[in-house]
Structure formats: C-alpha cells, structure tokens
Amino acid sequence: MTEEDSHTKDIEFKFDASLPPLLPPGDHYVVAFVRAEQQLLWGKRRKLFMHFKVVSPAEHAGAALFLAANVAHDGKWGIGFKFYRLWALAAGYRPKRKDRLSTTVFRGKYFKARVKTVEVSSKNTKRALAAQYSIVDELLTIEAGA
User: CA–CA separation, 42 vs 133, rounded Å?
Assistant: First the structure.
C-alpha cells in the first residue's frame, strides 16, 4: 500500500449498538418500570437511569425508553431532585427514612408518562434527525399497580 492509498482508504467500523426508539412526543404514554442502574458520567456526576417499556399506545408497545435523573451527592436528597419527586409519586407518601430511597416503589406499577425527543447533544449542539431519540421526561400519574 502506498502512502497515497493510506490517506484515501475508507475506514469501516463494526456497529452493533441497539438504537433507542424515536416516538412522537406527548403525555399520553403508559409505561412500566423494568430496571434501574447508576452510572458515573464524565468521572464526576452520578446519574440514575430508570428503564421503562411502553405499554400504550399499542403501536409503540414494547418500545424501551429510559429516564435520567441526577443522584444526590452524599445522599442529601432535596425536594427539588427529580428522583425524589418520582419516588414520592410512586410511593404515594414522603419518605419515612432519611437514609435511603429505593427503586422498589416503582415495581409492578404502570405510569402515565411524558415522552420527549432529545434534539440536542450534551454539548447543546443540534442533533441530526437520524440521531434524535425519545426518553421518558417525567412520570405524571400512577395508572395501575399496587
């Protein structure tokens, strides 16, 4: 291979990622909690990712969406934290313990959810339409479940 060939040769990467769905935005979705995980982002901030499956409307049933929320530093949850609000909705009361909030309160419940489209990157640059995806932005009400 000549030096010129190495500058003009295309590079091909393996692509085996599952792409998140792109659904129409709205407040009419019913979702079921699947699981939760924590991740350390950019080496400093912990995020909670809650994963849901769309139950309704039927044309989007089974679509997997996530909701992201900041994790309180040193466990100092305030009423303004998104996860605190979601937890209080799912539990139906204020936390009785001050040392923990568990995702257990979301299990077995169906929630009406606001779904939105992620249109900008983490650096606030516009995403191409093919790079946009949907997330659960907020849980609005409990629709069913214990």
Answer: 21
Cα 82 from Cα 86, distance rounded (Å)? 6
CA 74, 80, 82, 84: dihedral to nearest 10 degrees? 70
Q: Which of 125, 134, 138 is closest to 64 using CA atoms?
A: 134
- Tokens 């937890």 belong to 87
Question: pLDDT tens digits, residue range 6-32?
Answer: 677 899 888 877 888 999 999 999 999
Q: What percent of the chain has pLDDT over 70?
A: 93
Main-chain dihedrals φ then ψ at residue 51, nearest 5 degrees = -105, 135
Q: What pTM was computed for the model?
A: 0.84
Q: Are 129 and 94 in contact (CB under 8 A)?
A: no
